[in-house]
Amino acid sequence: MIGDLMHYQGIPVTETTSGQLANSVEPVVKGYSSLGSYGGFGQSWVSSTNTSEVTGVSFLFNPNGTGQNGVMVARIYTAAGFTGNYYPGTLLVESDYYDMSGMSLNETWYFFSLSGWTPNPSTRYVVTLEAYDSLLQDGFNSNLIISDTTGGFPGNRSSLSTDHSIWGTSSSRDLGFRLYNETIVSEDIVTIVDSDTTVVMLISNVLSTDETNALKVDVSALQPESRTGRQVKEVYIEEVKAVTTNVVVDVLWDATSPKQCLTISGSTDTEWDFREVGPIVNNAGSGKTGDILFSTYGAASGSSYSVLLVMHKKY
Amino acid sequence: MADAVTTQTIQDGDRQVVMKFTNISDGTGESAVTKVDVSTLAPESRTGRVCTEVKINRIFYDVSGMSVDILWDATVDALCLSLSGHGMFDYRATGALPNNAGAGKTGDIAFTTSGATAGDRYFVMLVMTKKYD
Predict the structure, then answer these.
(1) What digits encode the pLDDT tens for the residues A234-287?
(2) Is B27 an interface residue toward A (CB < 8 Å)?
(3) pLDDT tens-digit series, residues A191-205
(4) CA distance A170 to A274
(5) Considering A3, A157, B109, B113, which has the largest number of Cβ atoms within 10 A of its Cβ?
(6) How many angstroms separate the CA atoms of A74 and B5, rounded?
């Protein structure tokens, strides 16, 4: 017998809009899949570069007018498999079990609460909705869960056999879901100045896990030279004004193998003016893009940084 | 294994040389590693003279989790200064830091780290005045 009857929560709550939507598949061309023919469905997805604790996931149901029975649970797993064929690997977190009876007979998003799990940045996972009979045994129920049939979303759907033993995959469908986390806005990049010669950007972040090679200065997004229309190819660092809290920030030049430029760890103001002695030029090697990346070291709950870069544009 | 280090020459003119150094330690640390080899700096453009030593005018630095000793290379290396934390030192008004190494003085600058554990790191930029014989 799977799970614990003590964790019945009644019917899941209909979705609210609280929390920050971190990832989603919003079905466009809807396909209805029966949780009677399958033991569950999953969808692979990749976390962002800046993550925080996941508070829950929603799925779209449509009992199509037919009352349901049985229970269901939302889970998140590591992703096993390969491109176009990802399926659940190791279980990481699961919701309580929810009773299907009493759910709306119409199309409704239902929210399954999760807690105590934060995804690693830029990592692939699989979220699932798995269904059982009322005794939490592999069994039959006929609730309909909605997928998108265009196949146009990143990742792929997976489907679980009714005996919960085997996962299959389909790259032509994507399971509708919405993933929520706590942080509303944690990263803020403000371009203060973007002229022909100079770009000044303030890059701030509140983070609980480390970033790795997160793009902060995208030279292709900077204003071109006004007179000639030439695009910026790279920038040189003239000044740095920064403060960090419980985290170390590595500033890197983007390349096939990103090149370390400098490190910022000061919890009191760091102010460096390289104009008389530099500026610091981009010495990245093969695959150099001109962009600037940040990686952090030692981030934990409450870590943050604010880094202001004054840069000279090069065309 | 070894620390991941980089060296970048920002500027190397007749009078001034600016070099930037970074280290992300794997716990190994560095011991008297030559960072500024004066024999490899650009010679004086007009005379072709080779640089024999440098003085330190300014230091920009950020040292996290360990400390970094800046040494004048000699038979017995002489400690110039030790860095931890972050900041900037400007010695121009008070006098650039001269090389006061003793016997066997080479003119080079070496770094030694202390207390390095995996993940510790530094960024050090030296702004130096070149001296020729």
Answers:
(1) 999 999 998 888 899 999 999 999 999 999 997 777 889 999 898 999 999 999
(2) no
(3) 888 999 999 998 888
(4) 54
(5) A157
(6) 46
